[in-house]
Amino acid sequence: MAEKIPARSVTTTTQEKAVGEEERKAEREFRAAPKLDKSPLHGLWALTNRDLVKWYKNPIQLIISLIQPVVWLGLFGKALNFGSFISSSVPPSQQGAVFQHFFGVSSYFSFLSVGMLSFIILFTAAFGGMSVVWDRRFGFLNKALSTPVGRGAIVTAKVLQSVIRSLIQATIVLVIAVILGMDTSHLSVVTIVGGFTVLFLMSFGLSSLFIMLALRSSDWQTQMAIINLLNLPLLFASNAILPVSIMPSWLQTVVKFNPVSYANDATRQLLIGSTQHLAPLWVDFGVLIGFAAILGALGIVLSWRLLSQ
After folding, report:
1. Does residue 304 or residue 187 have the better pLDDT?
2. Contact call for residues 155 and 211 (beta carbons, < 8 A)
C-alpha cells in the first residue's frame, strides 16, 4: 500500500516553489540592463548647466566680456556728441527735430545704447562655438557622444547656454545704459519683454550659426578666424552704430539682408520708441523668427552628420 503524503507537506513544497520562483524573477530583473532614456531632451539641461557653471563660477570672465560694450557706451557714446556738430548750423530749438530725423530718437546715446545690446549678443554668440572646440580638444565631446544623449541635444545645449549668457549680459548692459542717461520714457514691462524676445531670437539664431560652424573644428585658431571674419561685417553692416539713412546706397542694401539690423530696429522701436524704422515691427519679428528657426533646425540636422567621436 502506497504511503500517503501529508497535505501539509504538499502545501509547504508549493509555497517553497512559489518563493523560489519570485526570487529568481527578482534576480532576473536585477540583472537586466536598465532601459535607456532615448527622449530627445534627455541630458539637455545637464549639458546646458555644465557650461553655465563654468561661466558664473568665473566672474572675471563675465567682467571682461562686459568691458568692451561699456567702453563703447561710456567713451564712444558720450564722446561722439553729434549735438556739437549740429549746433554749429542748427538753432538749439531745432536740434531735437534733427536728431529725430536722423536717429529717430532725441539723443545719439540712446540710439547707440540699444545697438550695444545687439553688440553683446553678437559677440557672446560668436564665442559660444569655442566651447565645442575645447570640448573636442579635451575629450569631453567624445564622452558625451558615447552616452545615450542625442547629438541634437548636445548642440541644443550649447545654443541654450550661449543664449542664457547673452541675455544676462544684455540685461547688465541695459542697466548701465540707463544709469549713463539712456531715454527711459518708453520702458515698460511690455516693451522690455518684447525687446528681450527679439534679443532671444537673435541670440538663438546666431548661436546656432557659430556652433554649427564649429561642429567639426578642433583648432581654436581656425574658429577665432571665423569669428573675426563674421563678427565685424555683421556689426558694421547693420544699423547698430549708425542709422541706415546716412550710409551709402550699396551698404543700405547689405543692411537689409543682415538679421542684426532687424533686431536693432525692433528693439529700438520697443525700448526707446524710435520713429525711424527699417521695417514694421511685425516684419522684424517675422525675419528673426525665421532666422532662429532655420538655423536652429539646420544645426540639429547637421549635428547628426558632422558630430563624430
Report:
1. 187
2. yes
